[in-house]
Amino acid sequence: MTKEIDWNNLGFGYVKTDYRYVSNYKDGSWDEGTLTTDDQITMSECACVLQYAQTCFEGLKAYTTANGDIVVFRPDLNAERLQSSCAGLEIPVVPKEKFLDAIHQVVKANKDFVPPYGTGATLYIRPYVFGKNAVIGVKPADEYEFRVFVTPVGPYFKGGVKPITIRVSDVDRAAPRGTGNIKAGLNYAMSLHNIVDAHNKGFDENMYLDPQTRTKVEETGGANFLFVTKDGTVVTPKSNSILPSITRRSLLYVAQHYCGLKVEEREVYFDEVKDFAECGLCGTAAVISPVGKIVDHGKEILFPSGMEEMGPVISKLRETLTGIQMGTIEAPEGWIQVIK
Ligand SMILES: *Cc1c(COP(=O)(O)O)cnc(C)c1O
């Protein structure tokens, strides 16, 4: 029985569900892992995660397709990305099969929380790993916990898609040879002040430039950029300090193989941005959010698609990828895993 939840009015907030997955790492190996109803974590006041932020995470979605299957989208890529995040933080790598098994178990156990097809709502899945034992001298923990919980979230765009306004940030998100390419909690901790400041000044997001030269576009705090040139080429910034978005990689594939568009992954200079026809932000939560305006210290770049609607190319990409996800357009081999 699907839960009594008002799917159309759900926001993006935490809702406690019935089960979560927990596995512990101790004495050099991961235990088998299990589902639990206990949503609380008890640990040392000196846990490495609390003192030195030794933690990384993933985010993906489960949803109901047109034919009633419950599916997840490309979880193998999340498994691989979590492995590189773990490696970057000296966290023991979570084996890929273990990650996938955990995702399947948690979604299956909470299947009554998976929103029905057509509501636009989804079940957001949050895998994460953290250093758990007491560490006061600076070094990695010896004991870790890998957990996966799920929470139903509402449609990202309620009452229609609205282009957003972003500002060029004065502070940096990631160092040139730092941790920008791994999904670490610490990258978000340092973005909190800047996003609150942006919101206070009337902007929806921050555009981060490359910290070394401050001439090239990187990403926002939690989404990659996609631009469309006036002749219809899809362009996305390339940099070692960008988090490799699975949505962005999927959209580039869709642009090329489903929409017949030219795609370029290359350095994008901020000076070029004013010449693009469309701009969007890609991530699991929204798939693509259209950007209507970018403000650089009072100088405004208003994209031709404007502040009322999504541009035609970004709109087509979004429709195609969501169609693939929802099962109304045939997916490339291996993109969709059915939860059985
Ligand atoms: C998670 C994340 C994204 C989006 O990645 P998806 O796999 O598409 O959800 C983009 N940028 C940052 C910094 C992120 O942490």
UniProtKB/TrEMBL annotation:
Question: What is catalysed by this protein?
Answer: L-isoleucine + 2-oxoglutarate = (S)-3-methyl-2-oxopentanoate + L-glutamate; L-leucine + 2-oxoglutarate = 4-methyl-2-oxopentanoate + L-glutamate; L-valine + 2-oxoglutarate = 3-methyl-2-oxobutanoate + L-glutamate
Which keywords are on file for this protein? Answer: Aminotransferase, Pyridoxal phosphate, Transferase
Q: What EC number(s) does the entry state?
A: 2.6.1.42
Pathway it belongs to? Amino-acid biosynthesis; L-leucine biosynthesis; L-leucine from 3-methyl-2-oxobutanoate: step 4/4; Amino-acid biosynthesis; L-valine biosynthesis; L-valine from pyruvate: step 4/4; Amino-acid biosynthesis; L-isoleucine biosynthesis; L-isoleucine from 2-oxobutanoate: step 4/4
**Positions of modified residues (N6-(pyridoxal phosphate)lysine):** 183
One Pfam family of this protein, by short name? Aminotran_4
Alphabetically, the GO molecular function entries are: branched-chain-amino-acid transaminase activity
Q: Tell me its cofactors.
A: pyridoxal 5'-phosphate
- Keyword Transferase among UniProt keywords: yes
Question: One biological process GO term for this chain?
Answer: L-leucine biosynthetic process
For this chain, the family text in UniProt reads: Belongs to the class-IV pyridoxal-phosphate-dependent aminotransferase family.
Instruction: State the protein's name.
Output: branched-chain-amino-acid transaminase
What species is given as this protein's source?
Floccifex porci
